[in-house]
């Protein structure tokens, strides 16, 4: 869920938390849903976070109910809680939906809500959450996304206990205003496209280097892998994967997806092998 402006942490703290969340999803889950704190501090230092920032971010996620203290083989660390695993899985659903364009024939999910002024904070939270899920605003309190976003919308509404204040529909476009016009009004497609192009500009050179080299250094692979994941996972939350029929021919999303998939395929093996060294007592100096 998004935070109110007054409660937003400084940029450095937000980066620490977002990078740690990326680390939890991309590294800790495949390593058995548990991480040694000493090894985590060392690894994230390689990505530019100091020990204090990492420990503060861990403390905040523990307070949020994502992590619980757990010692394994004499190493102090933290295990992912069921709440964390559920939240990460929900994030996966949104992120990977954007990799494949929606089928126009599946229809659309519409959310309309009427939240009283007394619950204004919840109204703002719901608006922010729908935006983060990739819904577009096409009218007063009317939000739309491809039909496959129905479960995510229902969860967002239920989390805020606003089920009685919302109406959710799934249906087809039948006529009236041009669908392409409605889409352009509902989403800032130029900004979404700019972000995809920025991703390509930032990482195409890395992809070319990987293709040219027969050996990938483990540390470099880990740092690049985590950077790619952290950068990419923010993009689909603004773009739920619109049908190609409503997008321009030069839409950069597919090219960005192909680049992301190639980078992940080439980096995840050496990156996780590098991280595995920090899960051992010998590495921690015990």
UniProtKB/TrEMBL annotation:
Domain Transcriptional repressor PaaX-like central Cas2-like: start-end pairs: 105-181
Entries under PANTHER family matching the protein: PHENYLACETIC ACID REGULATOR-RELATED TRANSCRIPTIONAL REPRESSOR, TRANSCRIPTIONAL REPRESSOR PAAX
Any GO BP annotation: DNA-templated transcription
Organism for this UniProt entry: Kitasatospora gansuensis
Alphabetical list of InterPro entries matching this protein: PaaX-like_central (IPR048846), PaaX-like_N (IPR012906), PaaX_C (IPR013225), PaaX_trns_reg (IPR011965), WH-like_DNA-bd_sf (IPR036388)
Transmembrane segments: none
Occurrences of domain Transcriptional repressor PaaX-like N-terminal (ranges): 16-81
One Pfam entry name: PaaX_C
Domain Transcriptional repressor PaaX-like C-terminal: 187-275
Name this polypeptide is given: Phenylacetic acid degradation operon negative regulatory protein
